[in-house]
Amino acid sequence: MADRCTQGECSKNEVKTPNSYRRNTHILFYGNCVMPALAGDLTVFLVTAMIFEIDPRIIGPDELRADPKLAEAADLTYETSQSGVRAMLPCALSYVPVSQVIPSATIAGLARRVSTPKSSLRDRVLAKQFAPGVLRGQVEYLFDVGNWSQYFKSEPGKVYGTMLMMLQLPFSQGSVHIPPKSAAGPPTMLTKPVIDPQYYGGEGGGVDFDIMTAGQKFAAKICSTAPLSNIIKSRVFPPQQGATADEEDFTDFVRNFTASDWHPVGSCGMGGSAGIAAGVVDDRLRVYGVGGLRVVDASIMPLQICAHVQATIYAIGEKGSAMILEDRRVGG
Ligand SMILES: Cc1cc2nc3c(=O)[nH]c(=O)nc-3n(C[C@H](O)[C@H](O)[C@H](O)COP(=O)(O)OP(=O)(O)OC[C@H]3O[C@@H](n4cnc5c(N)ncnc54)[C@H](O)[C@@H]3O)c2cc1C
């Protein structure tokens, strides 16, 4: 059974599950409707966007948006021959093992920082990505035509390309919570949650920061290597500071211009063998301590995967609905 919330932040219709004292999991009830667990342990991909001025003959999404005639011509070409810019995905991406981005001695140092006796179980599990010989695509590099940065303002008449760097297995861990009761009353179904991704927070966050900073050099190297370099005129954000990427320092760029890459997971993570001590749902997606309540979405993934998450979430949906039907048949 769920216990009534005792922290004074919740509405009268809100309860906290028994594990709430460690995990701070809240559940809101509205008549027959349940708004499940807005909880801690949120993990979001981190992303930076380097911007390059590229060959002005290349037409990308920014140019189509800015010029209705160009867009109309592109639409016509696509309708008549299924070709042209509308038929292209002007984007290249790769998942690169961290061992190819950062020297092995540096990686060993990173691993030590998150594998101490005081490190959390989660950090120690994540630290296994640094073991010698482990090849995972922890760092995603994606080059696309267009200016993807929310921080860099395009100049009219110039064509831009973006090199994104995304950290797939971050240690940074934030939270998403129902806001405290305010003067306007208790939270309702329409109340927006309070989201704090805590990028680069704590020792693990420091490790993320160092990987993101070192990884910018690799991003710059990709862009200065043919054939990609053949379409690049210059880097405009952050402006190039040295003759080669190795001479550059990307610390301020990463500190000031990291953003969310929109793949939140973990806020109702599956507890696994550690059960309620480590998670919100069991291996059949049932919320610990609450009868008749499951969570079937991205939030049950305790950790990120080295990929965009959508396909995995489809599998979670399929598997979750199959389990609900199975348990109904056996009266579970
Ligand atoms: C801009 C953007 C780009 C992305 N690009 C990619 C990508 O390229 N590849 C990829 O793999 N992933 C991508 N993602 C991530 C992916 O979309 C999400 O991880 C995924 O949709 C999460 O699935 P979900 O079922 O957990 O939640 P959602 O898809 O968010 O579904 C939640 C549903 O619950 C509904 N809902 C919310 N509140 C209530 C309520 N109170 N009552 C009833 N219903 C409610 C919402 O309307 C929504 O339909 C992107 C995300 C964003 C935001």
Task: Give me a quick take on this structure.
The chain is α+β, with helices and mostly antiparallel strands. It has eight helices and 13 strands.
Number of helices: 8
- Distinct small molecules: flavin-adenine dinucleotide
Query: How many domain modules?
Result: 2
The fraction of residues in strands falls at 15-25%
Helicity, as a percent range:
25-40%
Give me the secondary-structure category: alpha+beta
Q: What coarse outline follows from CA principal-axis ratios? A: globular
| Average pLDDT metric | 86
**N- to C-terminal distance:** 16 Å
Query: How many strands?
Result: 13
Biggest sheet architecture: 6 strands, antiparallel
**Unreliable sequence segments:** 1-24, 29-38
Keywords:
332 residues; alpha+beta; 2 domains; 27% helix; binds flavin-adenine dinucleotide
Structure characterization notes:
Keywords: FAD, Flavoprotein, Membrane, Oxidoreductase, Transmembrane, Transmembrane helix. GO terms for molecular function: flavin adenine dinucleotide binding; oxidoreductase activity, acting on CH-OH group of donors. It comes from Lophium mytilinum. The structure is a single chain. The protein has about 325 residues and is of the alpha+beta class. The protein folds into two domains: about 45-55 and about 90-260, no CATH class; about 265-330, no CATH class. It has helices at about 20-25, 60-65, 70-80, 105-115, 120-125, 200-225, 250-255, 310-330; strands spanning about 5, 15, 25-30, 35-40, 40, 45-55, 90-95, 140-145, 160-165, 175, 195, 230-235, 260. The strands form three sheets. Strands 6, 7, 8, 9, 12 and 13 form a six-stranded antiparallel beta sheet that branches. The chain is globular. Flavin-adenine dinucleotide (FAD) binds next to helix 8. Flavin-adenine dinucleotide (FAD) binds near residues 262, 298, 309 and 310.
